[in-house]
């Protein structure tokens, strides 16, 4: 009962020559949004297979484990007297405040709480239009490029440089910022980054991250930073600052409870941006998706952040 390896489902293409061309255009003539291969793969195998060798999240925390944490105790009255009513559309105020506290330069009103996948979908639809140019790390989580493609954007892939292992050398995977520079044009609307990178684990240096913002500034492009795996680096010395704290005004950050905190079942994440107009548009579009979050999930996420900052 071991699920078969599926490289395409994980967003990893067969390494044919046409995949290795610089800036491969991911735009197709298909109408609408394509099926999400990885999620369809998990739908088939995740809950029926004994041994899962392909998960990207840690062992989940149980409800009893979370509620027993010392830092969760002050929130017990809120949990035990919780009304199962609709919640505030931008998120529980205490949770937004706790999210802001994770960053150095963010105020509570500069984030909106939603499901992580929803954050990608709504941000792309709030920001992009047919004909826009997007550059995204590739391979990667399919929605980071597929949502833009479905809108009608021209999507170029920033692919890693792979050094194959040899005797005495373990090989490496790295993203060359000069390659990114060659892909960005004066009309580029969005650059999508994801570090630590899924699925390779590759990281940029701080100098390279600064170069990403310098490149973006030349075209006025937004930078969408998927930071779902940030703080899971093997060596904390390699940890990058959050992109939102790097001083570039057109930055959007995605983070959440699923990976770092071991609470994927809460379906709680957040979008952070200092672009007030963009954040307002995301909140407006959210009225057509989930409207608001689950009340129990918000309180449990608040506990999780206070227990495992």
Class computed from helices, strands and strand pairing = alpha/beta
Strand order of the largest sheet: 1-9-8-7-6-2-3
Percent range for helical residues?
25-40%
Between the first and last Cα atoms, what is the distance in angstroms?
Answer: 36 Å
Please give the largest β-sheet. Answer: 7 strands, mixed
User: Segments where pLDDT lies below 50 for 5+ residues?
Assistant: 1-30
Rg, rounded, reads 20 Å
| Helix-strand pattern | HHHHHEHEHEEEHEHEEEHH
Shape, per Cα inertia axes: globular
Mean pLDDT across residues:
90
Please give the number of β-strands: 9
Strand portion, in percent?
Answer: 5-15%
* Contiguous helical run count: 11
Descriptive account of the structure:
Helix 7 links the parallel strand 2 and strand 3. This protein has 309 residues and is of the alpha/beta class. Helix content is 31%, strand content 14%. The relative contact order is 0.18. Residues 1-30 have low confidence and may be disordered. A seven-stranded mixed sheet has the order 1-9-8-7-6-2-3, sandwiched between helices. A two-stranded antiparallel sheet has the order 4-5.
Outline of this structure?
This protein is α/β, with parallel strands linked by helices and 309 residues long. The chain has helices at 17-20, 37-45, 63-67, 76-80, 93-100, 116-127, 143-151, 177-183, 206-219, 276-286, 295-307, and strands at residues 111-114, 133-137, 154-158, 161-163, 172-174, 188-194, 222-226, 251-256, 269-273. The protein is built from eleven helices and nine strands.
